[in-house]
Fold:
Amino acid sequence: MNHSILSISLFFFASSLYAQDFVRIEVSGKLFAANDLEGVTIFNTSSKKGTIADFEGSFIIEVALNDVLEISALQYEANMVRVNQDVITTKQIRLFLVDKVNALNEVLLLPSQLSGNLLVDMKNAKVAKKMEMNFGNLSEMEFSEDAFTKVDNKIIKKDQLTDGLNIASISGLNKLINKPRKKRVLPKEKVSLEQILAAKYNPIFFIQNYKIPSPHVDDFIRFVVSNGLTESQLQEKEEFFLLEFFQKQSVEFLKQEYEKN
Structure:
């Protein structure tokens, strides 16, 4: 009897610990993009539950640490985001979406086969086939001499005799003509992080997404670099965390600007 009670107690205790590892909290989310955000789906692949953003891109979803969120919509590239400790602490998450570029196959429409119905003509259209041409190994082909054929200067060839006399060796022309030339190496200009950041994101990006006043965009870029931006953060795989870094720095920057004024 005591053994059964002990087993049941251990079972409930283990279940309680397991449940605590997967306690999910409700966080507020915000989507940022250039186009319409209503109807974008945010799906928690870990809990198998999802939600839909409103017309402003706002949403609420339950998450736990290391949950994976999948953001998808017809007009945007699919995105996978892992929930980190910052999201759990602040109970907020911001996601930036990238427009999807839809490419259509190239088709060939012949005037004689047009019916006037666009859908029918597209269905009957033939896809233009790519033409491939193979000339083989050009180095093995023989070409006749022409205006571009290299002149064969027999006099300056090494160890070449002219009428039994090595003129080039006697006169020292070999050393003068065949003297190796030093390559001129131009110093590479070092590109600063400010220049890289300004080239990657135009001013409108900072104005619309972070409310940075237009005259202060360059000041904000210098502020971000001076506060710990590294070149590794500018890699494509780190873009989500870079945008979060921009958000935090913009709050500090605008606060300082407000205090100055």
